[in-house]
Amino acid sequence: MLFNSYVFLFAFLPVTYAVFWWLRHASARYIWLALTGYVFYGYWDPRFCLLMAFTTMVSFTAGLGFRRYSSPWARRLCLLVPITLDLLLLGFFKYANFVLTSFQDTAGLFGWQAEVPVLRVILPIGISFYTFHTITYIVDCYRGVIQPTKNIFEFAAYVSLFSQLVAGPIVRFRQIEQDLESLGEADRTRWLGLGIAYFIWGLCEKVLVADNLAAFVDPALTDSAALSTAGAWLAMLGYTFQLYFDFCGYSDMALGLGYMFGLRIPINFNSPYKALDPSDFWKRWHISLSSCLRDYLYIPLGGNRSGEWATCRNLLLTMLIGGLWHGASWTFIVWGAYHGLLLLAHHCYGKLWDVLPGLVRHLLFFVLIVVGWVFFRATDFSMAMTLLSAMFTPTPGIMVANLQVFLVVLVGAAWWATSGPNAQTALAEFSWKPAHGFVCASVFGISLAIMAGGRNSPFLYFQF
Amino acid sequence: MNTAVLPSRAEFLPATQACPQPTPRPQRPRGYRRVRSAAYFSALFLIAFVAAEIGARVDDWAHDGVPPLANPSPAYDLQVQNADGIVRGRPNGRYKRWQLNEHGFRSPPMSQEPAPGRVRVAVLGASETFGLYESNGAEMPAQLARELQDETSVEVFNASITGMTVRSMLPYWEGWVSDFRPRIVVLYASPLFYLRDSAIKPIPESVAAAPRKSEGELRPVVAEPGLNSRFVSRLKDSYHFPDWIQRHRNRWEIERLSQDKPADWYYRSAPAANLARFRADIDALTQAIRASGAEVVVVTHAVRAESPPRPDDLDDLQSMRTHLPQATPETLVAFNQEASAALLDMCRENGMPSLDAAAALNGKRELYGDLVHFNDAGASALARLVAERVRPLVQETRAAAKPSR
Question: What chain B residue is nearest to A455 in terms of C-alpha separation?
Fold first, then answer.
């Protein structure tokens, strides 16, 4: 079920909302949130629910273990067993075929024709997200940052919370623990206006900008070999903004939904295309993932406390794993490595970079981001190389279709992403007034019309 | 435990967490508040609807060039009929992304008479070859044209009309398509239309004997649509249930269509009478085409399902049964297969070229958008097969250089 689908907007959300606020007790609300989370998730394929239930049970049991046992070895067992299980499941469903085919290809390079079976595995939607939710919970319990919950329904509601279940943000338990625990006393009207405003803002980003861009960009990139230099640049610029508005739109809708249910979900984007350098970019792009990678990978590896070489190694390793997290493909690994190298370069030569005027840094770094997205978007290296070749050597070919309309949408999107406000700045002083309802109704109506036009695409981050 | 490096909660929260509480207002009478709320929500609904309608029209204009004040309808915008009731494409018709040329074919502009020395190839069929799921320019006839572009002076045009049965193809051929003097006709007809009782009724004499070449003004096949909501029509077109719900909906629809029907109403095996009628109609059509001097390549009808159906095929077959409830899933594929065999037999008997697309493409799920309609890859696969079959015929035709009529 997509946030921008009729079944979600006109059936799931109203029913979930009405029953949630009709229930008075916190436990009843946990059960209801957990139940609706499973309905939301099972709508794609009910079999996936079993996997999520298993992960939830394992992590919850580990949490109980942390409460009960204080000896170091028992606590380590409670840490390692569920994380290993989580990673094994993630590895099997997401990476097994990638490993097998990579093995086959590598063997082929050495002249050994290995016959490796391809597993018929369906990737459960959002598995990377809820696996991270449970892993962060277990690690935080182990570190003593949070007190593990005794309430299975509270934990199940946290893992299966539909607003952030399949495409993030990656919410740590401690970030919403306070709101979850006071769910029984939550005031329905307190955040409602803000929740609606965030949701409509996100819907606008997703449907009016990202999906409109996708209508031009997707056909152009499908036939990427035929693109001219200008066509390749325009298509990649379109994709750059499509990806941002798609994912940021989803995250803003998730924030809005959270507010509607009395839960404050952390922000996930902070105008990343306003960034002036790689370090700044990763503080603004997919904040929940980059902060998870920092806190649960980079810092445990030693962070920047063990000398220059170790810092460089840790940065590169973190970004490689971050790339791999996005998908089981070498193109994602290269994309991660590319950003790792940018961070390294900035780490080593940041002072030289900072001497440049702000506008120059902004433009140059934006071009570097666009180049990175080539690997992120390409289905294989051949496509990536074709696109890069078209972008950097004069190539005759076709342009993006319906160019005039595309340019109008692209310029609008570029202005919004690089100079315009984001949701949290625009809504910083927000208080609901009846007139806001008319604005929201207009944007909602236009978004519905565009959705019904059949061009709405699934959220790009669902695949991760 | 070093928790100092971990970010504080405030780092993650938007600046809006301190949202001010609304100021309490003086209470008004309950009735007044209800009326005011009702008026407010009605205004919201109205504004949302008007915005949606404007959004739909601007979006159609921006992406498909549809004038904002037009009232598009596929049957009205893409089809017309002449005084004899022969349906054909509307000249310069356009509906969303589907665009027809000045003669009502989904092809680039063309003259009525082929240029001297040019071999014209017509593709005659229904929605499978007209193009439904394919992107613009990826429908089978367009891809066939590209496949044959190495053959100098070959021109392919798409004479397919959505929903056209073999029976309605005969007057369409005689009354319109033959005027364009194709030398080769690729015939891709669906036998599945014949899995209805109504399909085996003989054609009324008055219709069979009707003139095919009467002049007169073209009439729309449906009345001109009045002012309608593009937003509402978008909603109707776009909503798709997930597979597991759609499965139940199909089952309910089939049950509704077949309730109170006797057990012998169902086709539990490929019905011989319907098969014979299909074959006879194809025979009549191919004879008419050949009588005009053109060569016919009969292509068998490919489907996504295999015979007997695999478990994966049942969803597609049940969807088709919502249109053809008399046939069981097994009968649908068996009939398609027997029809293919009958066509190949007929071609052998009459010395006509044929192409067994069903044998080559049946069951290849990745090539289809539904049970019978191709996606870009499927249309491409079919176009390659047809091109291989047509290429020698083009050379023969050019060598013979015989007049087309």
Answer: B238
A284-300 CB burial, b ≥16 within 10 A, e <16: bbbbbbbbbbbbbbbbe
pLDDT for res A461:
54
Contacts of A47 in chain B (CB under 8 A): none
Cβ contact, residue pair A288, B19, below 8 Å: no
Write down the residue that tokens 């979006």 correspond to.
Answer: B59
> Residue for token digits 């006509």?
B352
State the Cα–Cα distance between residues B405 and B403, nearest whole angstrom. Answer: 6
Q: How far apart are CA A328 and CA A99, in angstroms?
A: 8
Q: What is the 3-state secondary structure (H, E, C) of chain B?
A: CCCCCCCCHHHHCCHHHHCCCCCCCCCCCHHHHHHHHHHHHHHHHHHHHHHHHHHHHHHHHHHHCCCCCCCCCHHHHHEEECCCCCEEECCCCEECCEECCCCCCCCCCCCCCCCCCCEEEEEEECHHHHCCCCCCCCCHHHHHHHHCCCCCCEEEEECCCCCCCHHHHHHHHHHCHHHHCCCEEEEECCHHHHCCHHHHCCCCHHHHCCCCCCCCCCEECCCCCCCCCHHHHHHHHHCCCCHHHHHHHHHHHHHHHHCCCCHHHCECCCCHHHHHHHHHHHHHHHHHHHHCCCEEEEECCCCCCCCCCCHHHHHHHHHHHCCCCCECHHHHHHHHHHHHHHHHHHHHHHCCCEECHHHHHCCCHHHECCCCCECHHHHHHHHHHHHHHHHHHHHHHHHHCCCCC
Nearest Cα of chain B lies from the Cα of A438 at a distance, in angstroms, of 6
State how far residue A373 is from chain B, nearest Cα, in angstroms. Answer: 26
Comparing C-alpha atoms, which of A84, A25, A39, A32 is closest to residue A58? A84
CA distance A136 to A129: 11
From the candidates B5, B9, B16, B380, which should be mutated to test the interface with A, based on the most A CB atoms within 10 A? B16
Spatial separation of the C-alpha atoms in residues A22 and A16, rounded to whole Å: 10
Q: Say whether B231 and A428 touch across the interface (CB within 8 A).
A: no
- What is the DSSP code (8-state) at residue A46? T
> Cβ–Cβ of A267/B12 closer than 8 Å?
yes
Nearest CA to A222 among A336, A366, A464, A386? A386
Q: What is the pLDDT along chain A (464 residues), one digit of tens a residue?
A: 778 788 888 899 999 999 999 998 999 999 999 999 999 988 878 888 888 899 999 999 999 998 888 888 889 999 999 999 988 988 888 888 778 887 787 877 777 777 777 777 777 777 888 888 999 999 999 988 888 999 999 999 999 988 887 777 888 888 888 888 888 888 888 888 999 999 999 999 999 999 989 988 988 888 888 889 999 999 999 999 999 999 999 999 999 999 999 999 899 999 999 999 999 999 999 999 999 999 998 988 888 888 888 888 889 999 999 898 887 788 999 999 999 999 999 988 888 988 999 899 999 999 999 999 999 998 888 899 999 999 999 888 888 888 888 999 999 999 999 999 999 888 888 888 888 999 999 999 999 998 888 765 555 555 55
Catalytic residues of A: 326
pTM for this structure? 0.75
- In terms of DSSP bridges, do strands B154-158 and B119-125 run parallel, antiparallel, or are they unpaired? parallel
Q: Is the ipTM of this complex over 0.85?
A: no
Choose the mutation target among A433, A451, A455 for the interface with B, i.e. most B CBs under 10 Å.
Answer: A451
Residue in chain A closest to B50 (alpha carbons) equals: A445
B285's tokens: 């059509």
